[in-house]
Design a protein that fits this description.
- By secondary structure, the protein is α/β, with parallel strands linked by helices.
- The protein has helices spanning 186-193, 244-251, 268-282, 303-313, 330-342, 382-389, 396-408, 411-418, and strands at 22-28, 61-65, 80-82, 102-106, 110-114, 119-122, 128-132, 163-170, 176-179, 211-217, 220-229, 256-262, 291-296, 318-321, 356-358, 368-373, 376-380, 425-428, 431-434.
- The protein has a 6-stranded mixed sheet, with helices on both faces. A 5-stranded mixed sheet has the order 3-1-8-5-6, with no helix packed on it. It has a 4-stranded mixed sheet with strand order 4-2-7-15, with no helix packed on it.
- The radius of gyration is 31 Å and the shape is elongated.
């Protein structure tokens, strides 16, 4: 009797909770290091100039699709992640070191989205996306020396690293998805074809969440693949009935469909077409995937007749009869799945071999002025808020430099057009000031 691949237990997840295919996490990139105010203090250089070094860039946060990871289970135990901040600058023009990037491994097939509407798909091993950019290092006082200001006592603070909440959703968890109506025998088939031990019972909706099992083709230990027993499908599932979309999204990217039908039923063709109709109603392209039809439960009365009906009604499909009680047809099924996977077209390699995505590649230089309440105005914009965050507001020189930059960007003119008056409150980021002449 064929047995499951015993060395693949790292990939087997049974009795998985509902949220192994979804996760909500918070990521924070590292802040940039601070620039420093420093002056040359050499014995024979009486008029030493500024020599403050710059801060290092903070580490960024990446999501990377890794082979061998099948679920988002790890993100249910830890939900917050921070990258390393950049080092601070020092005297003698010594720059701070860059913070170490943080890479979070996710399964291939993970879709990531932010609350701002940004999204990326990590489809294949090696795909990666920057989800939070590290902050820029602050400039040391060497950058602020001019012909009229030889001894600037101003340096920038490091830019705060980006932070955002991300929604992760795993849309593919296997190379082959076992589909079919409730109680068709999918869980029993998974148990018979792999080392998984899903819950099995003779009633609908035994499976309430996906179960995974690793199987291998008989006689070919190199051909190992993951099977997914996903919740049963009923009429109306595409509208949310039963387990609805929670089932259907797992079928979206599984390249092979293994359609399990209870062959002992008198209406085997109707049972087959119910599931096919739901796939087509949800997304028509799902019906174009390679499909292997399994006439299951051959050990029951009338099942042989059901197998004949399926083969006659589906002349263009591979129809395999199986019994999880006697193990009949199990090796043939595994061979069929392995052959179907081998015959799939290989995706073209992109330029450079690995696709790299970015959540946000644009730099927002604009700003808006909002009236919070009478006499209170807020200026919002990525660039102006970054200028404030990187300014040492405890330094008079730093504050004067900030105001000159804001005036050059047109912020003051915009406030005046909005109706700001002397004595009104203006806030930009965490900076709050009183408007004056």
């Amino acid at each position: 009797m064929w047995t499951a691949h015993q060395e693949s237990t790292d990939y087997v997840h049974t009795h998985m909770p509902i949220d192994v295919d979804e996760a909500r996490i918070w990521v924070k990139a590292g802040d940039g290091g601070n620039g420093v105010v420093s002056f040359r203090r050499e014995k024979f250089v009486p008029f030493g100039g500024p020599d403050g070094g710059d801060g290092g860039r903070g580490g960024s946060v990446y999501l990377v699709a890794r082979q061998g990871i099948s679920t988002l289970l790890d993100f249910t135990h830890q939900r917050t992640f921070k990258a390393e901040r950049g080092g601070h600058g020092r005297g003698a023009r010594q720059h701070g070191k860059a913070g170490v990037d943080l890479e979070l491994a996710v399964p291939p097939g993970t879709h990531v989205a932010s609350e701002a509407g940004l999204s990326a798909d990590l489809l294949r091993p090696g795909d990666r996306v920057m989800v939070a950019r590290g902050g820029r290092g602050g400039l040391g006082n060497t950058h602020f020396a001019t012909s009229t200001q030889r001894t600037p006592r101003i340096a920038q603070k490091g830019e705060p690293g980006e932070e955002r909440t991300l929604q992760l959703e795993l849309k593919t968890i296997a190379q082959a998805a076992l589909i079919g109506e409730p109680n068709a025998g999918k869980s029993s088939l998974l148990a018979a074809t792999s080392s998984a031990k899903p819950q099995i019972g003779d009633y609908p909706f035994t499976t309430l969440s996906p179960n995974l099992g690793v199987a291998e083709a008989p006689g070919d230990m190199e051909q190992v693949f993951v099977l997914a027993d996903v919740p049963g499908l009923i009429a109306g599932a595409h509208t949310g009935a039963g387990l609805g979309h929670r089932f259907l999204r797992h079928v979206e990217r599984a390249p092979i469909l293994v359609h399990v039908v209870d062959a002992s039923r008198p209406d085997v063709m109707d049972a087959y077409h119910v599931v096919r109709s739901e796939l087509e109603a949800y997304k028509p392209e799902l019906t174009e995937k390679p499909e292997i039809v399994v006439a299951n439960k051959l050990d029951l009365p009338n099942a042989r007749e059901g197998l004949i009906h399926l083969r006659e009604g589906l002349p263009n499909r591979v129809v395999i009869g199986t019994s999880t009680v006697t193990n009949e047809g199990i090796p043939t099924l595994l061979d069929a799945v392995a052959n179907a996977l081998r015959n799939l077209p290989r995706p073209e390699e992109p330029d450079g071999g690995v696709r790299v995505y970015r959540m946000d590649t644009t730099e927002d230089d604009g700003f808006v002025v909002k009236t919070v309440e009478p006499g209170v105005y807020r200026v919002q914009g990525k660039r102006v808020e970054r200028l404030v965050a990187m300014t040492d507001l405890a330094s008079d020189e730093g504050t004067d430099h900030l105001q000159k930059q804001l005036e050059r960007l047109g912020v003051f003119d915009a406030l005046e057009r909005a109706g700001v008056q002397v004595g009104d409150t203006v806030t930009i980021g965490e900076w709050e000031t009183e408007w004056g002449l």
